[in-house]
Amino acid sequence: MKPSGRNLNLTSYDEILQTEETRIEASQEKVIDIPLTDLYPFKNHPFKVTDDESMLETAESITKHGVLVPVIARPREEGGYELISGHRRKRGSELAGKETLPCIVRNLDDDAATIIMVDSNIQRENILPSERAFAYKLKLEAIKHQGQRNDLTSGQVGQNSKYSIEMSAA
Predict the structure, then answer these.
(1) DSSP 103
(2) Is 155 within the bounds of a domain?
(3) Residue 73 maps to which CATH number?
(4) CA–CA separation, 55 and 39 (whole Å)
(5) CB atoms within 10 A of CB 110
(6) Cα(138)–Cα(157) distance, rounded to whole angstroms?
């Protein structure tokens, strides 16, 4: 019996003629400017974005120097992008009168997006204990959902043991 060509996986001419440089360039993340109106907040974002003195300083810095570090976003099924990291930079850009924001767009599942969101915000100094606790809860749930060990130590969740012991004693 003659084999059929239906299951044959052919390479396109474009793929054959691509240089290694072109392939590497295509696989690298790029920073693109996305309209602020196309960026939506991360669902269950545990950190408040307030128009306090620190935010006004952020807006002033953005006015003078622009956004120095791009935000991270992911495509939404409904259109636009969900902001994973950079909610304060987005608000600062709005206050500075900007129309776009430099973004790195990544295709991330909910768990990976949650972990990045928590990790990129948890080191901030002015976080309420309730925000910090909720953020760690979200991260722990995401890690468990990814199939990793559920007997995490405090270090794996990003908490130092001294702080954990102090909080347990309180």
Answers:
(1) E
(2) no
(3) 3.90.1530.10
(4) 18
(5) 14
(6) 10
In a domain, 107, yes or no: yes
* Structural domain includes residue 1: no
Q: What is the arrangement of strands in the sheet containing 81-85, beginning at the earlier edge strand?
A: 31-35, 100-105, 71-75, 81-85, 39-40
Site of tokens 């992911």: 74
For residues 102 and 89, what is the distance between their CA atoms, to the nearest angstrom?
10
In the chain, the number of structural domains is 1
Q: How far is CA 46 from CA 3, 20, 49, 87, 104, in A?
A: 58, 42, 10, 11, 22
The predicted-structure confidence for 39-94, as pLDDT tens digits, reads as follows 999 988 877 888 999 999 999 999 999 999 999 999 999 999 999 999 999 999 99
Domain membership of residue 89 as a residue range = 27-147
Instruction: Quote the pTM value.
Output: 0.64
At 58 the three-state DSSP class reads: helix
**Polymer length in residues for the chain:** 170
Token pair in block for residue 44 = 């269950």
- Render 22-40 in DSSP notation, one character per residue: HHHHHHS--EEEEEGGGEE
Residue 126 placed within a domain = yes
